[in-house]
Amino acid sequence: MKKTPVLLLAGFVAMMSCFVACDKNDTPVQPVVLTLYDSLGGTTLVTDPTNPSMKIEQGRLGIRSVVDSTIFVIAADTAINSYFTVLLSEVTVGNLSGFQDLSNELTNFFCVATGAKNFMYTGLNMVDAHDPAKNSRMNGKAGNDDFDAFVADLVAGAQQNALPDYLIARVGALVETLRTQVVQQ
Q1: 117-143 residue pLDDT tens
Q2: What are phi and psi for residue 183, nearest 5 degrees?
Q3: Residue 18 covered by a domain
Q4: DSSP string over 38-96
Q5: pTM tops 0.85, yes or no
Q6: Among candidates 152, 179, 158, 183, which has minimal Cα distance to 36?
Q7: Residues 51-66: pLDDT tens digits?
Q8: Which of 98, 142, 176, 183 is most buried, judged by most C-beta within 10 A?
Q9: Which residues pair with 47 in a beta bridge?
Q10: Would you call 151 exposed, middle or buried from its count of C-beta atoms within 10 A (0-12, 13-18, 19+)?
């Protein structure tokens, strides 16, 4: 007989839970999930240091800063800079158009890949971008060692911009998903 009140109470709680869960006016609370882009600064507008009269999303600025630093690290890295002879020869004579295009395309790529909503990547897919037969700016096909060197240079570029280790790890995990498309030897 002691079980009857417990069963009645359990039944009542279950019935009330159903009514509460089925209430059409109740909207379930969804947890806020930050994209990697949000973690990198998101859509907050800040002054663009390269053009003080313009505003830029903080996430894009952070990504662009890491991209630009990484390009300079790669330029000094004899392990992989031979893949970028066209770009390096242009920069050597003061022509920055290739650098600016690469910076913009990589920034767009990483913005989209990290969850930004306000940008679009219109460049080559990763296979074609790293195939010298389809991209005359690439000087050879990359191997796994080259990809590893790129990742190390990316980490160095991120560290130059004081990106926290946990965000570097998240960016690294994202980049690692591209290995099979970039490595073509």
Answers
A1: 999 999 999 999 999 999 999 999 999
A2: -75, 120
A3: no
A4: HHTTTT-EEEETTEEEEEEEHHHHHHHHHHHHHHHHHHH-TTTGGGGHHHHHHHHTT--
A5: no
A6: 158
A7: 999 999 999 999 999 9
A8: 142
A9: 55
A10: middle
How big is the chain, counted in residues?
185
- Residue 155 CB partners (closer than 8 Å, separation 6+): 168, 172
1 found inside a domain? no
| Encoded amino acid at 147, one letter | F
3-state class (DSSP) for residue 135? coil
Structure tokens at 169: 């790890």
Helix, strand counts (H, E) of the chain: 9, 2
Contacts of 159 by beta carbon, 8 Å cutoff, 6+ apart: 168
Domain enclosing residue 176, as ranges: 36-182
Please give the Cα distance from 54 to 135 (Å, whole number).
Answer: 32
Domain count, the chain: 1
DSSP bridge pairs for 48: 51
Q: Which long-range contacts (CB under 8 A, 24 or more apart) does 149-155 make?
A: 149/77, 149/79, 149/80, 150/74, 150/80, 150/182, 151/175, 151/176, 153/70, 153/73, 153/74, 153/77, 153/80, 154/66, 154/70, 154/73
CA distance 163 to 102: 21
CATH number at residue 146: 1.10.490.10
